[in-house]
Write a structure and sequence with these properties.
Layout (H helix, E strand, L loop, with lengths): L5 E2 L5 E2 L3 E5 L9 H5 L5 E5 L19 E5 L10 H5 L5 E4 L6
Antiparallel strand pairs: 1-2, 3-6, 4-5
The structure holds iron/sulfur cluster (2 copies).
Length: 100
């Protein structure tokens, strides 16, 4: 099935890649993605014990107290900005099939 596509102001087609997952075990809670998302999709939350980073460093305990979450995934426009700025490659993106 064909994915839904958008169009730039200049008429060039592009395929939105929606944020569908965020790897909490890799996220360092830096907030970069939150700053660039224009759709309020993301929210910084307290980290659960199950989501401790794989490369946990005791000297960095303050920054791992929080983790980013996909609080409002249905508001995502698939712009991809979050992944552009994420230093840990936390996001998984997928295009969405167009309705038949
Ligand atoms: S793809 Fe764009 S709209 Fe979606 S979460 Fe990332 S920055 Fe926000
Ligand atoms: S940019 Fe990446 S590492 Fe930083 S808070 Fe967002 S998801 Fe986590």
């Amino acid at each position: 099935m064909e994915p839904i596509t958008g169009i730039t102001r200049g008429g060039t087609p592009w395929t939105p890649e929606f944020a569908v997952a965020l790897n909490a075990r890799v996220c360092i809670g830096c907030g970069r993605c939150y700053k660039v998302c224009t759709r309020d999709v993301l929210e910084l939350i307290d980290r659960s014990e199950d989501d401790l980073p794989d490369d946990d460093d005791e000297d960095d305990s303050d920054s791992i107290a929080s983790v980013m979450s996909l609080a409002n995934p249905m508001d995502c426009t698939g712009c991809g900005a979050c992944s552009r700025v994420c230093p840990k490659s936390c996001f998984t993106h997928q295009p969405m099939a167009a309705a038949a």
